[in-house]
Amino acid sequence: MQAVILAAGLGTRLQPLTFHIPKPMIRIVGKNLIEHNIYKLPKEVDELIFVVNYLAEQIINHFGNEFEGRKIKYVKQKRLLGTGHALSLCKDLLDKKFLVMMADDIYSKEDIEKCLNHKRSILTKEVCGKFIGGRIKLDSLGKLENIVEGIHNKKKSLANVGLYVLTNEFFKYDLVKLKDKKEYGLPQTLVQMAHYYPIEIEKASFWMQINNLDSLKRVEKILKNRKI
């Protein structure tokens, strides 16, 4: 099975750390961010596809063509046109079912395995109060209805955490352009697919997002006190 790791971003909110190193290669607790997730992948994931752009040579030189017994391929996203566009570049390399994850978020082994138990799934996190990102909207049957990007402030919400198990039916659908942006969203395109191919909803037991220097310090402190 294959896993696509999206690692093309500029990491501007972590400057000056990212002036000379891509965000996914930042090291905390003895590993870079990509390695923290690779070591949690089950054995059935035997091939990795990295989508790279900014300072890509550092990622390629570090991981090479094989890492921890897994073959690696690289796809260059020459223009940063969003996660949907990034995944579309991998179309011809992917088998029927595959995993997609962000290179710079921290997930848990258990949550990855829960998602892989389904043919198609999306990992979410219950959040309370205000947050920025993709809010999952479910229909009356508890199925995925929409993913709304923006600032949300509700008593309780389901947030998209950027980990998906997909099948190649995803590529049947036109990429959805984000409002007022030049980017194409993977989750927004996924919503189109969900109308015809069921997407199971899983809730994360552990997920850490690193989006600025303060959150990097917080995540490092948490990981030091957590067996992962």
What does this structure look like?
This protein is α/β, with parallel strands linked by helices. It has helices at 33-38, 56-63, 83-88, 109-116, 186-194, 213-224, and strands spanning 2-7, 27-28, 31-32, 47-52, 66-67, 70-76, 97-102, 105-107, 121-138, 144-167, 176-177, 184-185, 200-203, 207-209. The strands form four sheets. An eight-stranded mixed β-sheet has the order 5-6-4-1-7-10-9-13. A hairpin with a 5-residue loop joins strand 9 (121-138) and strand 10 (144-167). It starts with a strand and ends with a helix. The model has no long low-confidence stretch (mean pLDDT 93).
Give me a quick take on this structure.
This protein is α/β, with parallel strands linked by helices and 228 residues long.
SSE blueprint and pairings:
Elements: E1 2-7, E2 27-28, E3 31-32, H1 33-38, E4 47-52, H2 56-63, E5 66-67, E6 70-76, H3 83-88, E7 97-102, E8 105-107, H4 109-116, E9 121-138, E10 144-167, E11 176-177, E12 184-185, H5 186-194, E13 200-203, E14 207-209, H6 213-224
Parallel strand pairs: 1-4, 1-7, 4-6, 9-13
Antiparallel strand pairs: 2-3, 5-6, 7-10, 8-14, 9-10, 11-12
